Amino acid sequence: TAGTATLLAGSLPAPAAAQSAATSFDQWRASFKARALRRGISEATYDRVMNGLKPDTGVYALQRAQPEFQEALWQYLNRRVSDWRIITGRQRAAEQKTLLDRIERDYRVDRFIVMAVWGIESSYGEVIDNPKYMRPVLPALAALAWGEPRRRAYWEQELLNALVIVDRGWGDPRRMIGSWAGAMGHTQWMPEVWLNM
Q: 3-state DSSP call for residue 1?
């Protein structure tokens, strides 16, 4: 039955449960190269980044356990609108007053919106260097592009966007750290947003 299949899939190791393609990662990586080259990514960049890259299959379990889908709304909000976030947010706002003044003046984005996004997305940058929360983006996106069948086209596009960032010299693959889904930096923007901003 479908329920038994779901139960069995949940008990399999992450790569087996998530990877539904008939190809190995190495085969997928070799065939994906043509698409990257069509996108304008140089062969040298593709080979440098993708050859030897191991997919971060740990992302499959993290994808299934997203708190915004596992917790009731009140639980989610209570855990994120904490005393620590409020106190730290006030401190960071005072420290970054000049920058926040400029953002409001030049971009007309309210400082409280900026602070809310920064606080929720990366705890004001506190989690950026914490491997419990952040990981190298390219192996995560490669695993999702190869082995996540429901949104494969989306993950492939985001992997291509990340490769464009590297190809343009805007990011070093070793320093492109983010969430399991490939969102990067203090604001946790996906590669597509980085390219467009």
A: coil
The secondary element (H helix, E strand) that includes residue 136 is strand 135-136
- This prediction has a pTM of 0.77
- Structure confidence by residue, pLDDT tens digits, 101-138: 999 999 999 999 999 999 988 889 888 888 878 899 99
Distance, CA of 54 to CA of 52 (rounded, Å) = 6
Alpha helices in the chain (DSSP H): 2-11, 14-18, 25-38, 43-50, 59-64, 67-70, 73-80, 83-95, 97-107, 111-122, 137-147, 152-167, 191-196
- What's phi and psi for 135, nearest 5 deg? -150, 165
pLDDT for 19-43, tens place per residue?
555 789 999 999 999 999 999 999 9
Residues 6 or more apart whose CB falls under 8 angstroms from that of 44 comprise none
SS (H, E, C) 141-158: HHHHHHHCCCCHHHHHHH
Cβ contacts of residue 45 below 8 Å, gap of 6+? 163, 166, 167
Q: What angle do CA 101, 105, 110 make, to 5 degrees?
A: 70
